[in-house]
Amino acid sequence: MKRFKTRQSLSRREFMQAASVGLAATASASSRVWGSGTDGYTGKCLVTLQLDGGADVTQFCDPKVNTQGESKINNWAEWADPGQAGNILYAPVADNEWFFNRYGADMLVVNGVDAQTNSHETGRLFNWTGSNAEGKPSLSALHAAYQSPDEPLAYAVFGGESRTAGIIGYNRFDDVSRLRTLSQPRIQNWSGQPKRSPEEYGQVDSLVADEISRLLSGPNLSPRQLQNLERFAVARSNRDALKRLADILPAQENMEEYNQIEVAGQWLWDNLKQQMQGALLVFKAGLGSAADISFGGFDSHDNHDVVHEHLYRQLTDSINYFWDYADMLGVADRILLVIGSDFGRTNHYNDGEGKDHWPVGSYILMEKNAPWGNRVVGATDALHFSQRVDPMTLEESRNGTLITPAHVHQAIQEYLGMDTYAQGLGLALKDTVSLPLFDPSLQTGGS
User: Fold this and answer.
1) Cα–Cα 20 to 30 A to 242, which of 291, 305, 335, 434?
2) Which domains does the chain have, with CATH numbers?
């Protein structure tokens, strides 16, 4: 059987030939045509965890003490020094000590990343596409298009900045409980029984196939109409693959839920664990290779310390849940987790004991048993200004490279083997120096 092409547009003749074959096939045969196999995708998976609002990394992975004669950068620095886990320094607040001691060996911290903006919109765009201009896909969209373009949930979006640049579609889930409805569209959630008889569904399938054939026979189909028909046919033929997800979904009482908590007079919503659970179940079912998840509330223009310490406790607890659940599902050794934010927070408090927007932030990259873990690349000075690094040694260098999100994206693309693919699509990050971020022998500033 001929496969539909998914990485570029089909000619009208190609699409009609492929559609006529696909529509004549049984549902089970179609799943074999469209999917990558009966077990689905089993390769590398990418998750981006987007800390929305601008996380203060001086209270997390790039700790800063106060400098005499300058505005106070951190209240915690009046009574404590930064902690250290292996080669990684951390702020001694929230549950950071426990977190970095448990996971430091599996993480690479990239500090001093200059987003070159104080705008949330531009910061999110730059940090998650590698470009501060429109037109580039998110890192996860690129990975999904490269690794699993034929899977029904190739790119699953549970939150955050999601850009496709037209190279792949995505499925967005505002409520993970809808995975059950998605994976069992003909089953009643409350009873577990079919909504209609097999005979009725057979009639429906026949009528839909006839209608698609009729539409395809029209003489004036536009490229957009052909594309929409293609996507519709792909979605229908992939329905059987979704049964893999239905088979592993936990009982409803074991699905993670939304939480709401009041912190410093404001209500914060948290469904991060729910998002993580959904992404990991998609990977376990072999239905996709990339997911975006997000955790908000970091735009703390007042009551900064109270808000951020609460959020960091929630964050580290959730990341611990993520890796434990991934281990339980048997997918942990397949995942690269990329954590970042819009930008950072100012190196001083404002009149409301908050911190405002600051272009300098960090990424944390995590992988189970990472050979490149327990390292810090990039640096900031005592007042949290980005420092340049030598592009060969990664040591601080006055004449070196100022790290931006583009450099981090370029390094991840190379690490995941999709840089050549991006170049072939015309989506390469132009004029971006390749930095050896994943070289385990290199780091900034020594141990």
Assistant:
1) 335
2) 1-34+186-238 (no CATH), 41-176+254-424 (3.40.720.10)
